[in-house]
Design goal:
This protein is α+β, with helices and mostly antiparallel strands and about 325 residues long. It has 3 helices and 18 strands.
Length: about 325
């Protein structure tokens, strides 16, 4: 083989190598491009019933059915299917770009006040406000859980954990919704005394998170009144039928509390008519003489009034 032939053979091998590399690279690009397209189509642009997002000539987005009939007019800056029946949508508001939720009839299912809306679990979505760190938890029908605004919302160990101020609520995710399984409530009085409760092993599902927070607030209010000996707002924590008895008991211990125990004990029980009773018990150090004190227990019994509002109906000390 002469010199020119050798050079020609080397050239052919080099050319073949380049062609092989280009072919593999092209195949990978096609594969990746197909995968990206599949994700975009199945997860974002088309729902399980074949409804699909389309883009108009002016660059805005709408929704049409499989036959091309328009279900939602193309007036949205961004659209994304969240589940079969709902989409996140972005529009321009007076406060800038905001995200909300639409159903397939174009009705607003969640207001346009959010920065992001993302799944927390398979059936729940966290909507993060654009102008704060707070959020709302929505179920798959886009009803706000507990009708509350939360400071944080996490999904961990098959549970949704919601926080508000110093309170923490754990919910187990079940097939028919979420169930409250654990709470931690903390309240601080004006004088710095703090009480808290952690019900990891109690049936906390008997009350909602909102109810638990409300009962803790009423306990805090009454303790503030006792410490200050000011009962002008007593009817905010009890009702007229129990006002006198609660005031009598509260006056006996007013201003005598030196220290509150940090742990509050909670008991929840039901009666024959399915009415619930919540009992808060807090140990306290009480001044009996100038230099002496003794340990006593403050017991507050709470039931719902005729308007389904939790009220303190009994106060005991001893």
């Amino acid at each position: 083989m002469n010199k020119h032939t050798k050079l020609f053979v080397v050239f052919l091998f080099a050319l073949l190598a380049v062609l092989i590399i280009a072919s593999v690279s092209f195949s990978l690009d096609i594969s990746h491009g197909s995968e990206d397209s599949r994700i975009e189509t199945s997860d974002v642009s088309v729902n399980a019933n074949g409804k699909q997002i389309f883009q108009s000539e002016d660059g805005l987005y709408g929704v049409e059915d499989a036959s091309g009939n328009t279900l939602i007019d193309a007036q949205w800056i961004q659209l994304r299917f969240l589940n079969t029946d709902h989409l996140s949508a972005v529009t321009e508001t007076d406060d800038g770009l905001r995200m909300g939720v639409l159903d397939l009839d174009g009705n607003v299912a969640a207001p346009f006040v959010y920065d992001t809306i993302e799944p927390v679990s398979t059936s729940y979505f966290r909507a993060n406000f654009a102008d704060s760190e707070q959020c709302v938890l929505y179920d798959s029908a886009f009803c706000a859980v507990e009708s509350e605004v939360w400071d944080s919302c996490l999904y961990e160990d098959a549970q949704i954990v919601l926080t508000k101020a110093e309170d923490v609520y754990h919910f187990a995710v079940a097939d028919n919704g979420i169930v409250l399984t654990e709470i931690s409530l903390t309240r601080t009085l004006d004088d710095g005394n703090t009480f808290e409760t952690d019900l990891a092993h109690a049936d906390v599902a008997l009350l909602t998170a909102t109810e638990w927070s409300y009962t803790a607030d009423r306990v805090q209010q009454l303790l503030e009144m006792i410490r200050s000996d000011d009962f002008t707002a007593l009817l905010s924590v009890t009702d007229q039928s129990h006002e006198e008895s609660v005031l009598t008991a509260a006056s006996q211990i007013s201003q005598s509390i030196r220290r509150l125990d940090r742990t509050a004990y909670l008991i929840v029980s039901g009666s024959e008519d399915n009415a619930l009773t919540v009992v808060w018990q807090i140990d306290a150090s009480v001044r009996t003489e100038e230099t002496a004190s003794q340990e006593q227990t403050i017991t507050m019994t709470m039931t719902k009034n005729e308007y389904e509002v939790w009220m303190i109906t009994e106060l005991q000390f001893g």
